[in-house]
């Protein structure tokens, strides 16, 4: 097929998610502007009835079938490699996202008008509590001086109601993988999602690399989507703890220059020891063990990343732990007060 100019591919990665496709794909098909975009499902070797459902009920949706499950990151990498010659942009859209109105056009228009942007996200609201932001990305993400992620609309477990307080477009450090719009050529040039992360923080790592390439990451509040979230692992699951701690360390190791990397990782080990002790003292041995395993695996895996940037993008003053727990700053807008 020939290149489709400035069109968008809305790519939903699916693995045994027949129930998600049945519940949420109809809204994506209905509310995605067909004049600028096509909806594509990349199936990661599902063994349920996903493909049959798509063929029967969604004949207008293109299906890319993989013979096996390549995981979240590599599944998207392969899907975008398949379609990059046909589309200028892609939206990596989680299968548990519901959309309303013309959600995509504001993102597409913004990217067309901002050629230095490499990626952007809409406002992400909670599907369960639509008046609130959703944990995974809210209105755009940042990292503090120690590499802890937080968002406009969400700091740690405090999620704000959306009262229009973040309705201004803003450059951010990272955009959420729940609804991540990318320039396909930039995505591929920067290496796509790191498959070694498996899950969690892989989009932050990608956005960091996109910014290192000289492009911008934006939050575009004129677009909205509604994310179910928590469908894979609940917050208290030790596997999620393991992935979050391991991947955060890997991300810092990969993307920090030599002059600051060792010192920051030393401080993070101290802070992670405090988190480990907290789990231990509250009788949560499984999550305490997950932190130990995360650090052990980080030490093994970091050897695979030998090329580091010269630019330090984490040159920020915000200390989100101090602001949140000591200064009692629970919202993004209160951090500078």
If you had to describe this structure to a student in words, what would you say it looks like?
There is one protein chain. With 337 residues, the chain is α/β, with parallel strands linked by helices. It has 2 domains: 8-227, Spore Coat Polysaccharide Biosynthesis Protein SpsA, Chain A, CATH 3.90.550.10; 238-334, no CATH class. It is built from 10 helices and 13 strands. The strands form 3 sheets. Strands 1, 2, 3, 4, 5, 6, 11, 12 and 13 form a 9-stranded mixed beta sheet that branches. The chain has a two-stranded antiparallel ribbon with strand order 7-8. A two-stranded antiparallel sheet has the order 9-10. A hairpin with a 5-residue loop joins strand 7 and strand 8 (149-151). Helix 1 (18-31) runs parallel beside helix 2 (50-57), helix 7 runs antiparallel to helix 8 and helix 7 (238-255) packs parallel to helix 9. It is globular, with a radius of gyration of 20 Å. GO terms for molecular function: glycosyltransferase activity. Keywords: Glycosyltransferase, Transferase. Belongs to the glycosyltransferase 2 family. It holds the Pfam family Glycos_transf_2.
């Amino acid at each position: 097929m020939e290149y489709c100019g400035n069109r968008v591919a809305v790519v939903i990665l699916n693995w045994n998610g027949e129930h998600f496709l049945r519940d949420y794909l109809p809204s994506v098909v209905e509310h995605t502007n067909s004049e600028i975009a096509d909806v594509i499902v990349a199936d990661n070797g599902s063994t349920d009835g996903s493909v049959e459902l798509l063929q029967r009920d969604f004949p207008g949706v293109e299906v890319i079938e993989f013979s096996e499950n390549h995981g979240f990151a590599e599944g998207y990498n392969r899907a975008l490699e398949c379609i990059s010659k046909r589309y200028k942009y892609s939206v990596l859209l989680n299968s548990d996202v519901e959309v309303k109105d013309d959600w995509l056009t504001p993102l597409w228009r913004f990217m067309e008008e901002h050629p230095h942007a490499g990626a952007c996200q809409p406002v992400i609201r909670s599907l369960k509590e639509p008046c609130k932001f959703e944990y995974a990305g809210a209105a755009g993400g940042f990292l503090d001086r120690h590499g802890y992620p937080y968002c406009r609309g969400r700091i740690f477990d405090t999620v704000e109601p959306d009262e229009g307080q973040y309705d201004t477009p803003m450059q951010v450090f990272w955009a959420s993988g729940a609804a991540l719009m990318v320039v396909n050529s930039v995505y591929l040039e920067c290496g796509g999602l790191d498959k070694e992360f498996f899950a969690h923080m892989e989009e932050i790592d990608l956005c960091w690399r996109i910014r290192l390439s000289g492009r911008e990451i934006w939050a575009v509040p004129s677009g909205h989507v509604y994310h179910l979230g928590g469908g894979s692992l609940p917050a208290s699951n030790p596997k999620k703890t393991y992935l979050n701690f391991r991947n955060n360390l890997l991300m810092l190791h990969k993307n920090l220059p030599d002059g600051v990397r060792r010192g920051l990782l030393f401080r993070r080990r101290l802070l992670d020891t405090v988190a480990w002790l907290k789990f231990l003292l509250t009788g949560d041995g499984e999550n305490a063990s997950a932190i130990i395993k995360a650090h052990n695996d980080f030490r093994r895996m970091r050897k695979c990343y030998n090329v580091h940037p010269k630019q330090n993008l984490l040159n920020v003053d915000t200390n989100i732990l101090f602001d949140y727990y000591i200064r009692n700053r629970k919202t993004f807008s209160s951090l500078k007060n």
